[in-house]
Model the fold of this input.
Amino acid sequence: MTDRIRFEDERRWAYLRSLLERVARGSHDTSVDDCLDLLVEFFEADRGLVVLAEPQGSTCTVHARGKGRALSPYECEEISRTVIREVLDRGCHVLWQPGVERGDRLTESMISLGITAALAGPLPAVGSASKGVVYLDLRDVQRSVDEPQIEFFRAAVGLIGLALKGQSAPVAEELAVPLGPARSGPALHELMLPRSMSALRMDVEAAVHGDLPVLILGESGTGKTLLAHAIAEAGNRVPVVRVALGQSDDLNTLSSELFGHERGAFSGAVSRRVGLAEFADGGTLILDEIMNLPAGAQQLLLDFTQFGTYRSLGYGRPEPKRSTARIIAVTNGDLAAAVREKRFRADLFHRLGGLVLRLPPLRERREDIPFLAEAFLRRRDAGRGVSLSPDVRRALLDARLAWPGNIRQLELVLERARVRALASGGDSVSLSVDHLDLGERPAGPERGGPAGLSNEWLRLEEERERLEERERRLLDLALSEHGGVVARAAQTLGLPRTTLSSRLQSLRKPSE
Done:
């Protein structure tokens, strides 16, 4: 047996043991989602779903995960229902991937969705549903599925079936409805509990009970999108649909994404596409990184933000379409500066900023770190007692830690520590300093008086200025080599275009 084969065998057994652990917990609200997360991770898949079919033949998605997060209703629609129907009809596992002849209709639908492989297997009856399917798809051309992995998938489907049966009948019945809001983060009361958030509570309450659009500002990783979801769910403004803006400069692409298009609206528009504004009708539309929206697309949003009206591409009727979606816009950039520099429309800025919420960076709310850490571990592994040792609490509060990635960085540190701690097994785990990876910390006292902290902060500011100057010179050089075209410079640097745009805006001097 080669080392590669041995490694793959050990990896399959490790994941199978993890699946068994989730199922062994018995009745647990997140056990099925946990199993799907493991399945998606093992196959490096993009989507993993549990779909139930009622006796009448209609189907509904009851669990939907994608790379450690809940899928939106929009994402749940971009799957191969042909594969799911084949499993329901035949009652056996189905694999599709390039090179396997399955008929033109199936192949075309998969290619149109960007799916490179799909795997689905039948579940036993759950609640009122007579049949069920576990569905998985991959969208990376480098990935494929082999026979040992198919056998692993069969075992995983059986375990997910046991996890579903472990849920009480009322829970199963409650889940067997069209997918609604996806609980993928903390509830609003948990987000607002720390004292550092007290200044926001009044405006957040107004956001929950009002209809004004909301603009959430803050550095990357401060939890802006989590807060947007929590506000929507607390106000029962569902479904919640999120769109990441600025990923394309093409106006037609952005318009189609937001407002949809009619069949024949342009070359390649072979069918009608529902836009995100329509998906979010009656609920909430989260516009993520709004400052990355190109100027032409900003115009598209004007009427929609004020009147809820829009036109899909190719729409020929005199009266516009309408959506009652409530808008929550999110950005880590300085929108006010962008308005002053005429990079963002002032009228759109004022329409989006009915209520403005500014989330503080983690370095300004260090006292919250132990609470945030425990809350994350509770959500991440609710069935296991993962606790923080006193040494870990002290280490996380170290004043020398700048936390540039904010809460997102904290959660990654904790997740790595949790995985290391779990490697030793056991049902209850206490994280120790040995499990932490906090990176390099500047020399200096871990704790000290005001003078010591002030000097340490000054040194940190000086280092940051020197680093930002080096970064500014490098980005200017990349832009000059590509005639100022951001997309080409980003490709050369190996960065997403939106990341480069955000850094350029952040590093821009006031006089520029």
